[in-house]
Amino acid sequence: MKFNIIKLKKISQMPDGFLDKTPIFQFILLSCLFPLWGCAASLNDILITQFKSVFTLSDFASALVQSAFYGGYFIIAIPSSLIIKKTSYKIAILIGLALYIIGCLMFYPASHMATYTMFLAAIFAIAIGLSFLETSANTYSSMIGNKNFATLRLNISQTFYPIGALLGIVLGKYLVFQEGDSLELQMSNMTIEQIHEFRLSMLEYTLQPYKYLILVLIIVLFLFLITQYPSCRAENKDNPKSESLTSTLKYLAANFRFKKGIIAQFMYVGMQVTVWSFTIRLALDLGDINERYASNFMIFSFACFFIGKFIANFLMTRFNPTKVLIIYSILGSITLAYVVLVSNFSAVYAAVFVSVLFGPCWATIYAKTLAVVDSKYTETAGAIIVMSIIGGAVMPAIQGLVSDKLGSMQFAFIVPLICFIYVGIYFWTELKQEQSKL
Length: 438
Hints:
Blueprint: H1 24-31, H2 33-54, H3 59-62, H4 64-86, H5 89-105, H6 107-113, H7 116-143, H8 150-159, H9 161-176, H10 183-187, H11 192-205, H12 208-225, H13 245-253, H14 256-286, H15 291-294, H16 296-316, H17 321-341, H18 346-353, H19 361-371, H20 378-387, H21 391-406, H22 414-436
Helix pairs in contact: 2-4, 2-7, 2-9, 2-14, 4-5, 4-7, 4-20, 4-21, 5-7, 5-12, 6-7, 7-8, 7-20, 8-16, 8-19, 9-16, 14-16, 14-18, 14-19, 14-21, 14-22, 16-18, 17-18, 17-22
């Protein structure tokens, strides 16, 4: 693009699209996208708690926040991959940032109209932008350098995610949640008219974090606009014509390890989102505290997630990454079983600790799944892996439904427990696959 001011230093691109070395500034700027969608995702955890009380929702209905958010990812992932194929990763990133800004701006009318559906529409719009960002940035991060370090590079980029997630919770704690008793307790002593006015005032607060996000997004969009990026496109000398979507989908549908990775990613994202969506609720159920105080446990969760990523990156450079993930999955399953079975406040701390064990899962499953795909199908394959994020729309709704039916949010944590067990089985089968090649 003619706006390129920050030039790309001399690098060589390999026939498979990977580079001989990583351009540092471009990689750091690319990695800065990861906390941006982390912030949006963690703000959803705040909104679920706020909307449940303000709109008097069931656990299932409040979980529709995540359904709107991750449903947007699912719908737009393939279209965004087609745009990447016809243009570039950079163009897709610029489109994603612009759509993200538009989604944040929709919180202005939503906070004044005070309807749940309008908020869901704003969240869905944000997710459309994030689908462009994730479809491009995850694949791009793995490719922007030496192929041997693709998984490590993506894990490093993913380490930025919990910084944004932590910031989102902090913004929600101080800008959305207010001092005093819990919302439910406050409204129990009000008249119908007072409740109506109180709800309107509480919804006004939901706008505040998105004002700051818009400013940050504009700055990041400008930096991408003026920075030159490599194409990272595989050469197809035998057939220079791009593969059609139909032939690509047929190829991927016949690829067993790719399909297995998609299911694992679906279950992993579902597990992560369910735990984070309902940790605040769990704390409110098991302790005599308000929403602002309960949000501290999400701050602790994302701090654990951040620490867990660093530990995982260290371990995965010294030991077999698949074996590391098997151990993480076993420990995670035991921890979630504790959350389900132990009926005291220590279950909340267990729900917090399990975030340490989420660390390397997403990036490792993503890179492993993409690695079993021929390079000429990379863009579409990456988009389909991002589509597996729909697990974040499905599993929280299932957990909310289980909670509503059984009257116990704590027991409903059996849903992420089942997911973590499946993720462990996936890594175990991958290890067997690796050993069979030796």
